[in-house]
Amino acid sequence: MFILNGSLYGSWAARIPSIKQGFDLSPGDLGLLLLLMSGGAIAAFPVAGGLSDRFGSARVTLSCAMVCCLAVALVGYSPVVAMLCVAVVLFGAGLGAMDVAMNAWAAEVERDYGRSIMSSFHAFFSVGAGIGAGLGAIAAWDEISYGHQFFAFAVMLSPLIWFSSLPQIWQTQKDQGASQKDKAAQEPETKKKGPRLALPRGALLVVALVAFSCAVGEGAMADWSAVFLTSVIQVGEGQAALGYTVFSITMVAMRFVGDRLIIRFGPVNILRFCGGAALIGSSITATASGLFMTYLGLALMGVGYSIVFPLVFSRAANSKQLSPGVAIASVATFSYGGLLLGPPLIGFIAEISSLRFAFGLFVLLALMVVIGSAAFRQSEGPQNEVRQSDGRD
């Protein structure tokens, strides 16, 4: 499901220049369109959480996957801007709800598995995004319309959804009938008390801001990297679509080795390295005048953004201020907020200045990651992240 979600997102991201050109959208218009998508996702977050609690996260994930396939096909065949807006809202809601549900499902699988595997799940999301963007690049290169591509993509993904719907594939302990009462009895008393939702404070607020900074960059890369290459570097759609593929490949490569690097060098050092890579990469991208240097900058940004989210959620789970669930929820709000608000923010800045100037924002965000790395030192005392990563609790 992480691969499917990522491939849908990557396929959409790679063809944004085609959609922009097809409807003759200005940067501000495109920013508004992406804001509609973000609004649909944000509205779906609490709904998906409630449905997952009631019907099981696996069922909700599979249902949302089907909605996403229908919505992306509708995006491809929208004849007018009004219908495109409706389709984009539906697509955003489907992706947002699926994101919440599949992460809840992954957490259940992780508990059944007995050790931390969340980083690998997110690595497979990046694999899917790279596949989707790569197929989008091929379609753009062959001058296949995005409508035909999106429809074909939805049809291709249907067998995967059907296979995943088999009970022996998706059932976890919760779906097999484990009672909520028994699960609650197993939880520590500290997790049962306290608010269901709380704003992060102190060091946890810095952690949340690091998550927000990374999320703005990662979300904007998906929607704006191809547009940057066509509008600023002035290359063809096929070469432009490969930009996000380069970004995704370096990100997934780092995520697959992330746990071992954290164990070897510690979370603070790894976060500083990631922030530095993002800082250098964003500087190169924002000032590049050629295709190769832009690709290099995007590759370094992929390295920089790769391991931040696993570190953020691990740090939140070891918070001394809030219970793990509440702390993770509070930080996740900043993460997903940045992921969804980043693309329209770049559009608005580009509208009043230029797209190259808007990409300079990533330099400041990467600097925030480097500065905020000190807030991750608290969890290094007992080596919580290391123990969580290799399962020695």
TrEMBL record:
Annotated membrane topology: Multi-pass membrane protein
Subcellular location: Membrane
Domain of life: Bacteria
Transmembrane residue ranges: 30-51, 58-75, 81-101, 121-141, 147-166, 202-221, 241-258, 270-289, 295-313, 325-349, 355-376
GO function term, MF aspect, one: transmembrane transporter activity
Main location (coarse class): membrane
Keyword Nucleotide-binding recorded: no
Sorted UniProt keywords: Membrane, Transmembrane, Transmembrane helix
SUPFAM superfamilies: MFS general substrate transporter
Major facilitator superfamily (MFS) profile domain residues: 1-384
A family per Pfam: MFS_1
PROSITE patterns (UniProt xref): MFS
GO CC annotation, single: membrane
PANTHER family attached to this UniProt entry: BYPASS OF STOP CODON PROTEIN 6, INNER MEMBRANE PROTEIN YBJJ
Protein name: Major facilitator superfamily (MFS) profile domain-containing protein
